[in-house]
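pinned: reference chain
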Amino acid sequence: MFRPVTITFLWCLSCSSFLFSGLPANADHGSYRAGRDSIIHMDEVVVGAYFVRQPLLRSTSAAAIVGQHLLQAQQGTNLLPALNTVPGVRMEERSPGSYRLSIRGSLLRSPFGVRNVKVYLDDIPLTDAGGNTYLNLLDPVGLEGAEILKGPDGSLFGANSGGVVILRSDRNNRFGNTGSPDQQNVSHTDKNAFHTDKNAFQTDNKAKIQLQSGSFGLLHQQASYVTSPHPRYRMSWQQAYQRSDGYRAHSALDKLYLQTRHQWQYSETKPNQLRLTALYGDMKYQTPGGLTAAQFEEDPSAARPGSGTIPGPVEQKAGIYNRTLIAGLTHEWYPFAGILHHATLFGSHTGFRNPFITNYERREEGNKGFRTYFSYAPGLPIFSSIPDLIVQVQTGIEWQTGSYKIDNYDNIDGVPGPAQAMDQLWVQTGTTFARLALDYRSIWMIEGAFSHNFQKNQFRELFPSPEKAYSKGAQPAEWMPRVAVSYQPHPAVALRALVSKGFSPPTTAEIRPSDNIINTDLKAETGWNREAGLRYQTAGHRFFVDLSLFNYRMENALVRGSRDNGAEYFRNAGKIDQKGLELLTQIWLTRPTDVAAMFQVCWTGSWAWSRFRFLDYRINELDFSGNALTGVPRHSLSNSLRFIFPGRWECWLTHQFTSSIPLNDANTVYADSYQLLQAKISRSIPLLLKDTPLWLSDGAAALEVFAGGDNLLDQRYSLGNDINAFGGRYFNAAPPRNFYAGLSLHF
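pinned: its structure tokens
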């Protein structure tokens, strides 16, 4: 019998493959510079999540870096292919536009969307006060890359127990830096007075227009423009439109995305800066519903059929309609050398409609808040007598408030009918945090951080009992400490260890789920994570290995359930033991810095082993203790080959394997394992004007032509399973073999 796990694992180890994201010198993650000769020049990748940028090799956290090149490595319509190359990260697609993101098992709480993971766009939290994140509104056109912190890391970023994702909209953004712009990492801190470039944002105008089409009615269009009309002012505009008919019946998608960013360095002597970021998403997509195993085998492209007195999603015109505006204003002020005050004001508004099988939901959501901190990077005076010691100190606060008006009506063939329930919810969340980091001779990095987190909820029933008094609920305030150390005995080797606490209160969508019942008895998830790791990187960044071992003990885990009519609810599930191993490697098979080596090959791959189990989980007479955690595969592997040919040709081959997945808490139903093979080939053709190349600052104006295919092995699999679904409707079929092609104009 063919054993894909064994073969792929040996392939991953023997060939020193990597995982795309998470490596320090990864050309696929925006850490390269491509010159006119198409030779890759490897640069050190740095992590800026902890306020001061430092090399990933020395980072104390389980971090991963995803660059723009990786985001465009496959179809480029969403973040899914790129994020699924990161070990421990899993993104799923139930149907076009309906995505779920989890880190180290946090999918357990997510019927759709993102929960238990804190997401930022540069300085702005995309995760609202209620704990929900509309990640599916974004388009890769507005992103330069992402930093991913795996495991509970809420000491600086508020409540979470899954991890943190920081999306970058501009590679020149200094979010995470302290001191002057020249202070790129903690081991090379400039202790002198400010040294700033008066032409901080000077750059040539850049524009891009891209259009692609593919199977199942796919049409994806992107446009972007970046310019600096003044040496200290930079602005960018991005726009994208996407539509698709979808593989399954009743799974069409229509999405518009707009984003703008403005940076103004208003001082000539200091790098003081104002930044404005705004984005708008208008998305609507149909939801075909889950299928039983028999229906999945008979016709995986079908929508969920009606049963008895319950109609199906086609009759009820089930779907999601989401219009969201998010904006934030950031001010960075450097009063003295090495001292930064950072302040961000942000807000959002969402108009949300969801015709569902059992009801028609309307939501009006408003959020606002601020995030501010002081950062001090050069050595403190009290440590000045200790040579080669660099000290960082940061302290700050993040506060959010949200107001949510939720109305549910009977759904009469896609039209709201009589009211079922109406509620008003108010949420306040706050995080006060502090961090101290000691860097001794660029060998030892010791970090200590903590945060104090609280969440307060207020609810009012407006219908059917408007006279009902307010009901209040507040999660007990929680301290979240983090202690981590990194030791570099050799320039090529770094060892790390950390202990951190996770804390994740229930979201508004869990307290008031689709069954319209407010549950104020839900408790927050908490737990301790212990982790150790090793990183190895050769000179020139040609070979890299990152190994992580962790054990996270979680209490009061939140688990999704489903009622007879399909409406969801949530409950606390006792204790969960999460043991895991994550391995990623990269090797350039040809020397990337050799000008004569016009043909270049990079072999990459990753492996995540997840032994996640319920420790103490009982529901009445049912005992699920010892069962595998629902929705999490035991093995996930990713391998890739990137070829760079003379003549500006490039080819990607990506293989992914996912082992079987338990679909209910009893572990009586599993989704089969599957393998995916993806490929993309592209060529960049320089453009000439009167025999003169139109060179931009990073290369020539060019026309890029590309084509690719997904699921080339034509696997039948379900990518977005509905866990613990009533009636066995677990499966949401992913598309079979499909293709796309397009062109992109850069000038």
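why pinned: Residues 288 and 686 are 44 Å apart (CA to CA). The longest strand covers residues 415-440.
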